[in-house]
Amino acid sequence: MIGAVLAGGRSKRFGGNKLLYRIDGKPLILHTIERLESANEIEEVVIVASPENAEKLKTFGYQVLVDELLVGPIGGIYTALGLGDAFVTAGDMPRIVPEFVDYIIKYFHKSRKAVCVPRWINGHIEPLHAAYSMGFLDIIEEQLALEEYMIKRAIEKANVCYLTIEKVPFEWRESFFNVNRKDDLRKLGIPEPLV
Ligand SMILES: Nc1nc2c(ncn2[C@@H]2O[C@H](COP(=O)(O)OP(=O)(O)OP(=O)(O)O)[C@@H](O)[C@H]2O)c(=O)[nH]1
Ligand SMILES: [Mg+2]
User: Fold this and answer.
1) Is the ipTM of this complex over 0.85?
2) 98-111 and 28-37 helices cross at what angle (nearest 10)?
3) Which annotated residues bind GTP (predicted)?
């Protein structure tokens, strides 16, 4: 399956382009990609970028798709599904657990549902760590026509398989860790920059 890494955001909370921020000398997005591509079920990683980020991201050697919609993750998922079924993640997830990715993809193939998404017992879902089929494109198109851009709403309309997070190994939860603010770097054991 394709692994699609979303990279069309504006890093407003972080300030600057968080995906290019170097952690141990390597841009954040490359930490994410390397974790994702080490999952056995991932055949190829593609980056779904905003037009302004595309050129720089191409230098990393992965296929870059340009998201022309820029209406949030739903537009990135839409762009990725143009290539085929995809496991979609955010670009700011440097702690992805490859075994968890494989688990979700296998469950997705077995279930034959449009989407397979992890869900907490409280009902919260993790749509940027989920498997999507091309069959989901119709629903996204409907939502775009309605100007409804919340991916959560699109998923609610689909034939979905939910994976209860509390039922899989506790360590897999680390997979959802994502960098939103400079302060989050501390959780990676990196001192927050002084400036
Ligand atoms: N392709 C694409 N990716 C997006 C879009 N909006 C957000 N993303 C990506 O989705 C992931 C999760 O989004 P956020 O954590 O909100 O990142 P962000 O939007 O850059 O950050 P904020 O501006 O602070 O919200 C990140 O990897 C973003 O780059 C979009 O419109 N298109
Ligand atoms: Mg955002």
Assistant:
1) yes
2) 50
3) 6-8, 18, 67, 92
Measured between alpha carbons, how far is residue 162 from residues 13, 63, 96, 165 in Å? 30, 29, 19, 9
Q: Which ligand is nearest to the CA of 128?
A: 1
Q: Strands, DSSP E only, in 41-85?
A: 44-49, 63-66
Which pLDDT score is estimated for 193?
62
- Whether residue 195 has pLDDT greater than 60: no
Task: Express each pLDDT in 54-105 by its tens digit.
Answer: 999 999 999 999 999 999 999 999 999 999 999 999 999 999 999 999 999 9
Q: Which ligand 1 atom minimizes the distance to the CA of 79?
A: 1
What's the pTM value of the predicted model, to 2 decimals?
0.96
104 lines ligand 1 (CB under 6 A): no
DSSP 191: P
Query: For the chain, which domains are there?
Result: 2-180 (3.90.550.10)
DSSP secondary structure code for residue 7 in this structure: E
How many Å apart are CA 33 and CA 28, to the nearest integer?
9
